[in-house]
């Protein structure tokens, strides 16, 4: 799930939540509770996890995040 993501205003932000604590905070902040407790997301669905993060970040401008 590490990577650069586009926000609603077209600006990009970097996500690098590798530790369980930071992953949990990311999931909670983005409203992705179903991914909490699985740092990096389910091993068999990395693309799906990245898409969920991208979709969530695209709902607000970069300054919001």
For the termini, the CA-CA separation is 16 Å
CATH class: Alpha Beta
Please count the helical segments. Answer: 2
Tally of distinct domains: 1
Radius of gyration: 11 Å
Tell me what the structure shows.
The chain has about 60 residues and is an alpha+beta fold. It has one domain: formyl-coa transferase, domain 3 (2-Layer Sandwich), CATH 3.30.1540.10. It is about 35% helix and about 10% strand. The chain has a two-stranded antiparallel ribbon. A hairpin with a 5-residue loop joins strand 1 (about 5) and strand 2. It is globular and about 30 Å long. It starts with a strand and ends in an 8-residue tail after the last helix. The mean pLDDT is about 95.
Task: Provide tags for this entry.
single chain; formyl-coa transferase, domain 3; two-stranded antiparallel ribbon; 2 helices; 2 strands; 12% strand
Task: Give the arrangement of secondary structure elements.
Elements: E1 3-6, E2 12-15, H1 20-30, H2 46-57
Antiparallel strand pairs: 1-2
Question: What is shown here, in short?
Answer:
The protein has helices at 20-30, 46-57; strands at 3-6, 12-15.
